[in-house]
Amino acid sequence: MAARKAVVDPEKRLQWWREARFGMFIHWGLYSLLERGEWIMYCERIPKSEYAALAGRFNPRKYNPDEWVAAAHHAGMKYMVLTSRHHDGFCLWDTATTDYSAPKTAAGRDLVAEYIDACRRGGLKVGLYYSLLDWRWPAYWLGPEKAPEAWAEFVDYVHEQVEELVTRYGEIDILWYDGGWPWNAEQWRSQELNAMVRKHQPHILINNRSGLPEDFGTPEQHIAAEQRPWEACMTMDELWWGWHSGDPNVKTSMTLVRTLVQCVAQGGNLLLNVGPKADGSLPAVQASRLKGVGEWMARNAESIYGCSSPCGGLEVRHFGWVTARKKTLYLHVFYWCGEELVLSGLVNKVKSATLLATGQELKVAKDRDRTIISGLPRTAPDKIDTVIKLEVVGEPEGLGPYDSTFWQD
Ligand code: GLC
To answer: Rounded distance, CA 279 to CA 292, Å?
Structure first.
């Protein structure tokens, strides 16, 4: 009797993802040719036929997903999520459901297959983004009430496409839905859809954008700690996910590192976006920002992987943030305080304090719940974020200001 693959317990499924903390989001498709972001078809109301003609020009000669994987790997990212289809409906994989796909047009290649192979070769987990909505289908705009039959046909098409993605390419680690609005889980038949996905992929993680909570929340363009697993997704530019050559406000490596730290310090992941050019190459400015992140990660990744928020009751605002793993606290000093740094609220004794990047030992003294770290350089050794590693005795425990004995003297 063929054993039915049992769905894996959510905590087990999430284990690698919590450890990973940092992933690469990739928005890439026909819109990349126009260099005005991934919503351009909608924003400029480009007629369907005119937009579809882009498929005849979308031939990414420089597409080498091993390069994306290498860039992600060097930045310290552990997983990738690629737009298999965005709201414009153009499919990057070899689908039997439509000819509106990369393999059947100018590209002549299954871009998703190549991406998945590259992720596996590079040891990164594989994620696929899939937009439920498709602007080209009138049924999407009309909805299930006004056009029940057309809607049913459209939703069948969506289910079929998702089934292809989860059955043709071996193990997929993340299914990252988007574009459910304004319709709900019942209307997309999401329960059934996700049950099908899990039947084929017992280990898969599914995000919350099919209208069902599933495995993790996805705050977008902001950090919002949730009571459940969450991953903030953020652009590298100010606004756009797909390549927009006119968005001048590319975040610095410092901002990107500090964003990652803030996610981890609040118990979440960061999915940082890149928008490759139509030819498949990463824009130089994005590649160089990632490189900067990677240089910091090479020295400090220990304070990110498998880390989470520290115990409550620590006062950290005067210097930055704290990430924690078991009995180790990592003080991320964004605002350098000079030769001495005081962490208040920590009850525990401290076994050792070191500068994480160099291993240099620091002096620690305790004064009730004040932990006074000295022997620090006068100016920040790492302008991006200097990390001080504290090994404490016992489970870290914090005192809020109202419990602090300090004020009683
Ligand atoms: C939004 C946008 C979309 C982007 C996504 C990433 O839903 O519509 O363009 O892909 O967020 O989170």
So the answer is: 24
CA distance 65 to 50: 28
Residue nearest ligand 1's atom 4 by CA:
241
Q: Domain spanning 10-303: which superfamily?
A: Glycosidases (3.20.20.80)
pLDDT of residue 1: 39
Evaluate: CB of 82 within 6 angstroms of ligand 1.
no
pLDDT of residue 368: 86
Quick one: which of 254, 240, 233, 223 has its CA closest to 283?
240
Q: Which of the 8 DSSP states describes residue 226?
A: -
**Cβ of residue 241 lying under 6 Å from some atom of ligand 1:** yes
Q: How close is the Cα of 378 to the center of ligand 1, in Å? A: 43
Low-confidence spans in the chain with pLDDT less than 50: 1-3
Helices (H), 77-134: 111-122
* Domain ranges for the chain: 10-303, 320-407
* Cα 9 to ligand 1 centre (Å): 29
CA 244 – ligand 1 centroid, Å: 14
Nearest to 58 by CA among 235, 241, 243: 243
Topology of domain 320-407 in CATH is Immunoglobulin-like (2.60.40)
Q: What pLDDT, on the 0 to 100 scale, is given for residue 3?
A: 46
233 lines ligand 1 (CB under 6 A): yes
278 vs 257: CA distance, rounded Å: 27
Ligand 1 pocket, residue 220 CB under 6 Å: yes
Q: Measured on CA atoms in the order 321, 325, 329, 334, is the torsion positive or negative?
A: negative
Q: State if residue 231 touches ligand 1 by the CB under 6 angstroms criterion.
A: no
Cα angle 169-7-232, degrees, rounded to a multiple of 5 = 70
